[in-house]
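Morning, I've got a small favour to ask if you have a moment. I'm working through a protein record and want to make sense of it properly. The fold is given in discrete form, as structure tokens running alongside the sequence. Can you walk me through what the tokens say about the fold? Thanks so much in advance, here it is:
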Amino acid sequence: CSLVASSPRMVLRWEPLRPAGPAVKNHTATAVSAHELLMFGGYDGRRNHNTLHLLDVTRRTWRELSHETRGRPPAGRNGHTATLAERKLFILGGWLGSGPLAAADLHVLHLDTLTWEQPELTAALGPCNMHTADYVARLRSILVFRGGDGREYLNDLHALQIDSMTWTTVRTRGRAPAPRANHSSALVGDDLLVFGGWDGRQRLNDIHVLDTRSMTWSGVADEFRVDTRHYVTPPLPRAGMTMARHRDRLFIFGGSGPSAKCYDDLHVYDPSRHQWVETVAVVTAENPDELKRRQSFRSSRSRTRSQPRWDIYEDEDQQDGSWSGNDAEEFDEDLDSDEEFEDAHSDREAMMVAQGLVNDSCDSANPNEMCEFSDAEIPKREEPLLVVGRGPGRRAGHTCTVVDRMLVIFGGSCGADYLNDCFTLDTDPPPRASVSLPSPARMLRHALAQYVNCEEFADISFVSYLFTLNLDEV
């Protein structure tokens, strides 16, 4: 017989990672090796921290490094960024817990010596909090899409050149994203993608793309007005979620929606196709609690806006949570229709798991321009990704870090609960081997291959009845 490897539908698997770490939100967690990440800062409900922890994903161990560092560390903070560039960790901005404005300082941790440095800069970026910072190796620069400064929401773009340690304001073309904070971003090739956030009035679920070669912004067309046979509903508007790139896809998890309601849903975006990939939670014997989760349901809109197809599963007791974010002004919103619909279904005994199809209705919370596609332009819809295992609960202000083939989600908060649990999402499909048994004719042909077209045995002829004979008899 022979073993033939096959590629099954991609399966993502959640697993808890124990032991737990410190209970904080709005911290940072940065991958520094193939199996380690550094966590810095955060808020625990009482005060800001400036502790530095190392998580070894392979050994499943936490280790505090604060006492092993040299130099003067940054003050405790939350809502900052920690960007890895050429074996240095750049800590920028955040809330310090006092004063009307966010921090504007920059600190650098040299990883090889664990030495803190506060470099002198030729120019200052200005206060920033709940911003994003991504390192573009080709430019040897960290691109910062500024969020809030404590007084207003911003959408300016700045670059820190790490060799000269100079700030420059980047002049861009195209239509820039609206001012916002608590958004997320990720680099895919030469493109910087920005998703969601809070603009001072509402949460967002739009996607914008910056071509870092031409520094040109472009918006991704709203999927609500394209052929519903091939498109999956985008996430509900949110802030405080995470977005991480793994291979050629973006993984978005959690965040807070209207009235600071927390989510525990997973969404996958394919930048090459400009479309969302459907995810389906799989209930197995090892994760019966998955029945309580509404992962696919939350990736759909209310039936007043769309008509997805539904699968019905039993759900014993749904529990809703809320989240207190970093900016108090975020929570003066009224409940919108999406939230009312979701709450109305939270108390039902049956859970509806949507498959993610939408009709041609539109959501005003997404400011992207509408787009029409012809049948020839519509890409083929991908097979759904299967998600197995019990994943993280509702949360926002957490981190999601790519370590090797896994996504590591840690911490965050939901309401007054500050979380210290850690989960991994394994993105590699399990290998599957199929056993192929050849026919008797093929087996005989293989066994006697050396005698075929051979002069010494040219007088041998084979007939069908030989297939029933023992090879020794032949």
User: Anything to note?
Assistant: Residues 130 and 182 are 5 Å apart (CA to CA). Helices lie at 295-298, 337-346, 440-447. Confidence is low (pLDDT under 50) at residues 1-7, 222-227, 294-376, 462-471.
